[in-house]
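[Automated response] Your request has been received and processed.

Submitted sequence:
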Amino acid sequence: MGSDVILEFDKAGLYRKIRGILAKHGADLGALNVIVSKASVRIQGALYRQPGIQSEFTPEIIDAMLREIKAVPGAPRLEVQFDNWAPAGTGGAWKRTKPDLR
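Generated structure:
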C-alpha cells in the first residue's frame, strides 16, 4: 500500500497540541475556545494569563505563540479572534484593545 495510505485527520490530537501550546505560553484556557475542523483552527475568546502568572502578554509573545500553532503538522488555516487583542497591521503585530479587568 505505501503511498496509497491516506492519513486520517486527527481532530482530537490537533486540539490537544494547540491547547498545549496555548498553555505553554501561559494562556488561561478557561477564557479561550479552540475549535478544530478540517478547514481551520479557530481560537476565540479573551487572551489572559493563567492565574498566578504575573507578567502580561506582549505582542511578541502572542506572535510567537501563533507561529508555533501554525507550524503544527497537519494544522489547517488558523483563525484568531481575541476579545481583548487585535492585529495591528501586518507582520504579526498585535495591540491590546481592552484592559485585563480580572
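Summary generated for your ticket: Residues 7-84 form a domain with the Alpha-Beta Plaits fold (CATH 3.30.70.2210). The longest strand covers residues 40-45.
If you did not submit this request, please reply to this message.
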